[in-house]
Write a structure and sequence with these properties.
With about 160 residues, the protein is mostly helical. The protein is about 70% helix and about 0% strand. The longest helix has 22 residues, at about 135-155.
Length: about 160
């Protein structure tokens, strides 16, 4: 949702970024192409190019938003807080979708892979600056493993694509 106090150009940029983020979190990675983004936003290719001259400029902006969405769920005051808030946050559809993106996108070379890779690097640097490399090298792999087990256990019960919150 875009705030009303932004200029029309900035509102359009926000709408575009919202759409690309939705593609990512819903697993529609193949849709991340300029023509598909313009079509989904009901704008012309020229309007899209006025806001973002290329796909790289869109993905850079989305990456910052993706990392912020992810980090806001976590308490980085201690390694224990990181582990607890991560596991609790797996109940949030948005957090779960981002973790799912990190895991699934790592398996293929695509725009989503580049976004997930850059986002994961930004996130691990953020964790390292707050908690040190021991948290990055020990806690994050453990948390990804726990997340994968939770996804496997939930697969038959609930769809993973719900990103309402």
């Amino acid at each position: 949702m875009t705030p009303a106090n932004l200029s029309p150009q900035q509102q359009l940029k926000e709408r575009i970024l919202d759409q690309v983020l939705a593609f990512l979190l819903e697993g529609d990675w193949q849709q991340i192409e300029m023509k598909n983004i313009a079509s989904q936003c009901a704008i012309s290719d020229a309007e899209l190019n006025d806001c973002f001259p290329n796909l790289q400029s869109i993905t850079s902006a989305v990456n910052s938003r993706l990392t912020q969405n992810f980090i806001q769920h976590l308490d980085l005051s201690s390694r224990e807080s990181l582990r607890l808030t991560w596991l609790d946050s797996l109940e949030s559809p948005r957090f779960r979708a981002i973790v799912h993106l990190f895991i699934d996108a790592s398996q293929q070379k695509s725009v989503a892979w580049r976004l997930a890779n850059v986002g994961w690097n930004q996130f691990t640097n953020h964790v390292a600056s707050h908690l040190g490399y021991q948290a990055v090298n020990q806690d994050l792999p453990w948390l990804l493993g726990k997340s994968m087990l939770k996804f496997i256990n939930q697969r038959g019960r609930t769809p993973l694509k719900s990103v309402d919150s």
